[in-house]
C-alpha cells in the first residue's frame, strides 16, 4: 500500500524522496526560543523530522515530529494550508519524514506546537514502524535493526548521544593536560600488546598474512621512543573471542602513555579523568545500576594488593599451602581446577571467578603476579609481582595501568617466556615483535601507561546492563 502511495505521488509530479532543506531549527531549540519570547512577540520556524504520531480530527490534524534531539507537535488545519495540501497531509503515513513551517503557539493543554502554514514530504517510509506503544520489544531484533530502535526508543537514542559526549569529554580532559591524540595501524604483521586471539586477514599487495590489532600498546610505546612524551589513542580493537554482556569482538578502547610517570601517576590520572567526565556531564559522582545498587565515584578510591584480596577470600595462609590443598579448596568453591594448573594459575582462577565480580565500588587492585602482565615493570621489592593496577568498578575491569617495562633485555625474556608451551594459534612460529624490541634498544623513557574500555565506561555512567546497549551495531550471528 505504501509503495502504491509513493508511485501515485510520482505520477502527480511529487518527489517522495525530497531535497535539501534550508533554515531548519531543531525541535528543542524551537521550545527554548519560544520560552524566551517577550509578551506580544511571535516566532515563525521551520522544522524537519520523522512523523511518529498522527491524530486526525476532521478539518484539523495533530502530529508529532521527532528530530535528532527531541520532538515537537505540529497542528495542520484545512483552512490554513488549503484543501489539496490538507488531503495530502492526511494521506501521509507514520514514519514519513517531512518539513513543516509556521508560527509557534501553545495549545489549551499547554503543549508548545507549530501551527503549520506549509509542509513538504522529504522521504516516504515504505515500511511501517513497530506498534506504537511497544516499539521493538525483541532484544535481538533491536540490535539487528538499530535504526528502528533509535526511532522508537528515546532512552536508546539518549544513551548514544551520551556516549558521544563522554568521548568528547575524555578528549577535552586529555587535551587540557597536554596529551596529543594519535592514530596507529589497525592491521599489523603481528598481533601484540595483549594476550588474545586475533582476527586474521590477507594483504594481497604485500602478499602476506596480517592481523587486526588486539591492542594499540606497542605502537604507542614506539612513539615514546620517538620523543612524544604524552600520547593517547581512541580506537577500535578486535579480539576473536566469545561474546557476552561485557564482551564484543569489536570494541573501543583508549590507551594513554606518559613519559616520566609510573603506575601511581596513572592511578591519579584515571581517577581524575573519570570523575571529571562524570561531574561535567552528569553533575554527580553517584550512579545507580538497573537493580538500584549505587556506585559512588567519590575520591579517594580504594587501593588493595591482589594477594590481600586472595587472603581475605581463602585465608591468611593461602600462599603457604601445598598444591594439593590449594586444588581441593579451590574445587570446593565450584571452580574447574585441573591437575595441570600450578599455584599461580589456581590463585588467579579464584580471583577471576570469585573475587573480581564482587568489587562494585572503585577499587585499584595492585601488585599483580608478573606472569599476568608481560609488559610492566616488576615491583622493586618482589620480582614475582609487577607494578600495575587493575581498576575494578561494578565488578568488572575498567582500566588497567602500568609502570611500563623499558628494559629491552628483560622485555625479550618476558616475550620468550610467554611463548613457552603456547599453541601456534596465529599461524606463526615466532610472535615476538622484533621491531618493538629494536625500538626499546634505542631507549624508551620510564613511563606510565593505561588502557580503558570506552564501552564499559559508558555502561557504567549510563546504567545499561549490556555492552550491546552501548555499541550502535553490535556483532550478531548472520540470519538465514
Q: Would you kindly provide a written description of the structure presented here, covering whatever features stand out?
A:
The chain has 480 residues and is α+β, with helices and mostly antiparallel strands. It folds into two domains: 2-129, OB fold (Dihydrolipoamide Acetyltransferase, E2P); 152-301 and 361-469, Bira Bifunctional Protein, Domain 2 (BirA Bifunctional Protein, domain 2), CATH 3.30.930.10. It contains 15 helices and 19 strands. The strands form four sheets. Strands 6, 10, 11, 14, 15, 16, 17, 18 and 19 form a nine-stranded mixed beta sheet that branches. A hairpin with a 2-residue loop joins strand 17 (382-393) and strand 18. Helix 7 (154-176) crosses helix 15 and helix 8 (217-226) runs parallel beside helix 14. It is elongated and about 90 Å long. The model is unreliable at 424-429 (pLDDT under 50).
Amino acid at each position: 500500500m505504501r509503495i502504491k502511495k509513493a508511485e501515485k505521488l510520482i505520477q502527480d509530479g511529487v518527489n517522495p524522496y525530497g531535497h535539501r532543506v534550508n533554515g531548519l531549527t531543531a525541535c528543542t531549540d524551537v521550545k527554548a526560543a519560544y520560552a524566551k519570547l517577550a509578551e506580544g512577540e511571535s516566532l515563525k520556524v521551520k522544522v524537519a523530522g520523522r512523523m511518529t504520531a498522527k491524530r486526525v480530527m476532521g478539518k484539523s490534524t495533530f502530529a508529532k515530529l521527532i528530530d535528532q534531539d527531541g520532538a515537537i507537535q505540529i497542528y495542520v488545519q484545512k483552512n490554513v494550508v488549503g484543501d489539496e495540501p490538507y488531503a495530502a497531509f492526511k494521506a501521509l503515513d507514520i514514519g514519513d519524514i517531512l518539513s513543516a513551517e509556521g508560527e509557534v503557539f501553545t495549545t489549551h493543554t499547554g503543549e508548545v506546537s507549530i501551527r503549520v502554514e506549509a509542509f513538504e514530504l522529504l522521504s516516504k517510509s515504505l515500511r511501517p514502524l513497530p506498534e506504537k506503544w511497544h516499539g521493538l520489544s525483541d532484544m535481538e531484533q533491536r540490535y539487528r535493526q538499530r535504526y528502528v530502535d533509535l526511532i522508537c526508543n528515546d532512552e536508546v537514542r539518549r544513551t548514544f548521544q551520551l556516549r558521544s559526549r563522554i568521548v568528547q569529554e575524555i578528549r577535552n580532559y586529555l587535551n587540557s593536560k597536554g596529551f596529543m591524540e594519535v592514530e596507529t595501524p589497525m592491521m599489523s604483521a603481528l598481533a601484540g600488546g595483549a594476550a588474545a586471539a586475533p582476527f586474521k586477514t590477507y594483504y594481497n599487495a604485500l602478499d602476506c598474512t596480517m592481523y587486526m590489532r588486539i591492542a594499540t600498546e606497542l605502537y604507542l610505546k614506539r612513539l615514546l621512543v620517538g620523543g612524544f612524551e604524552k600520547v593517547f589513542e581512541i580506537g577500535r580493537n578486535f579480539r576473536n573471542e566469545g561474546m557476552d554482556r561485557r564482551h564484543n569482538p569489536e570494541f573501543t578502547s583508549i590507551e594513554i602513555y606518559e613519559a616520566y610517570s609510573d603506575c601511581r601517576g596513572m592511578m591519579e590520572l584515571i581517577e581524575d579523568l573519570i570523575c571529571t567526565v562524570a561531574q561535567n556531564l552528569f553533575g554527580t559522582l553517584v550512579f545507580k545500576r538497573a537493580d538500584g545498587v549505587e556506585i559512588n565515584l567519590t575520591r579517594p578510591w580504594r587501593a588493595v594488593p591482589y594477594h590481600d584480596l586472595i587472603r581475605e577470600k581463602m585465608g591468611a595462609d593461602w600462599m603457604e599451602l601445598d598444591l594439593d590443598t590449594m586444588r581441593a579448596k579451590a574445587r570446593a568453591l565450584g571452580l574447574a581446577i585441573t591437575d595441570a594448573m600450578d599455584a599461580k594459575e589456581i590463585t588467579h582462577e579464584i580471583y577471576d571467578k570469585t573475587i573480581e565480580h564482587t568489587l562494585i565500588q572503585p577499587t585499584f587492585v595492585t601488585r599483580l603476579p608478573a606472569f599476568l602482565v608481560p609488559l610492566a615493570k616488576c615491583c622493586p621489592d618482589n620480582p614475582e609481582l609487577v607494578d600495575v593496577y587493575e581498576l575494578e568498578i561494578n565488578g568488572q575491569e575498567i582500566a588497567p595501568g602500568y609502570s611500563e617495562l623499558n628494559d629491552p633485555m628483560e622485555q625479550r625474556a618476558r616475550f620468550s617466556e610467554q611463548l613457552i608451551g603456547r599453541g601456534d594459534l596465529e599461524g606463526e612460529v615466532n610472535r615476538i615483535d622484533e621491531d618493538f624490541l629494536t625500538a626499546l634498544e634505542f631507549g624508551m623513557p620510564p613511563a606510565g601507561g593505561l588502557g580503558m574500555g570506552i564501552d564499559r565506561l559508558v555502561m557504567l555512567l549510563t546504567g545499561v546492563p549490556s555492552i550491546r546497549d552501548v555499541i550502535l551495531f553490535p556483532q550478531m550471528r548472520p540470519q538465514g
